[in-house]
Design goal:
This protein is α+β, with helices and mostly antiparallel strands and 257 residues long. Helix content is 25%, strand content 20%. A five-stranded antiparallel beta sheet has the order 4-3-2-1-5. A four-stranded antiparallel beta sheet has the order 8-9-10-11.
């Protein structure tokens, strides 16, 4: 069971009193909220039954989640609140926690300080416990841009006003050849145009030698893909297993004894 008592010695600020249930036991949520910044060991419930040890980063009563940093503190200042710490974070739902053990207390929070001009400064994010590391905005921006580019690429490969067969042919050709849409027509290798309904005779290209060579290649690939799609559509469906017949029960009256 978690040890939630802290001694108020050496000028340390008092810890908020946890909620006590009717039976005199401290609730798990309240105990975890009082252990933010401390080193703890958590055991999860079955079927995973994992054990995690690290610094409790936060415990949210709204989402009923905790975040624990299982990375080891830096050896130079293992208990420094202001030094950035490496992060390997795990987010766990509180109901999945079977028990936790308090291994070491959190560093004392920074108190307001008075300068020589009798002005009081309050702690900011630089003195937060646990320490908050800077966010690499350039990395986040690059990650977002990569996701946007990927979604735009996927959207550009989706035909507008095209039936299912046309989209399947486009996807099949695009696996081996550079392919794009031009309204409802498929453009392959920037040389061959396949007009609806995307048959072999619907392939057209210019009269140049290179364009005619690309036309022959695209027609062969299209013929193979259409045959593959036809075989798939003509494949008989696997019949569902027949339900076992219930044993017949005699309902008629028997003659004799």
């Amino acid at each position: 069971m978690a040890d939630t008592k802290r001694q108020n010695a050496g000028g340390k600020p008092p810890v908020a009193t946890p909620n006590i249930g009717p039976s005199g036991m401290v609730s798990l949520e309240s105990a975890l909220s009082g252990a933010i910044g401390a080193r703890i060991r958590i055991t999860t419930t079955i079927p995973t039954n994992n054990t995690l040890e690290g610094t409790l980063f936060t415990a949210c009563p709204i989402t009923n989640l905790i975040a624990i940093n299982t990375a080891s503190p830096t050896p130079t200042s293992p208990t420094s609140a202001s030094a950035p710490q490496p992060g390997t974070y795990h987010i766990l739902p509180i109901p999945k926690i079977a028990s936790f053990t308090l291994l070491s207390l959190a560093p004392p929070p920074s108190s307001p300080t008075t300068t020589t001009n009798n002005t009081t400064t309050t702690p900011d994010f630089t003195t937060a416990t646990p320490a908050l590391t800077p966010i690499d905005l350039r990395a986040l921006s690059a990650r977002a841009q990569t996701a946007i580019t990927r979604l735009k690429t996927l959207d550009s490969r989706r035909g507008r006003g095209v039936g299912r067969e046309g989209q399947e042919i486009f996807d099949a050709l695009g696996r081996t050849l550079p392919t794009r849409w031009s309204e409802q027509s498929i453009v392959v290798l920037d040389a061959v145009v396949i007009k609806p309904p995307y048959r072999i005779e619907d392939c057209v290209a210019g009269q140049g030698q290179g364009q005619q060579g690309a036309l022959g290649r695209v027609r062969k690939v299209l013929e193979m893909e259409r045959k593959r799609l036809a075989d798939r559509s003509n494949r008989p469906a696997v019949p569902a297993p027949a339900a076992a017949a219930a044993p017949a029960t005699g309902t008629g009256s028997r003659k004799g004894g």
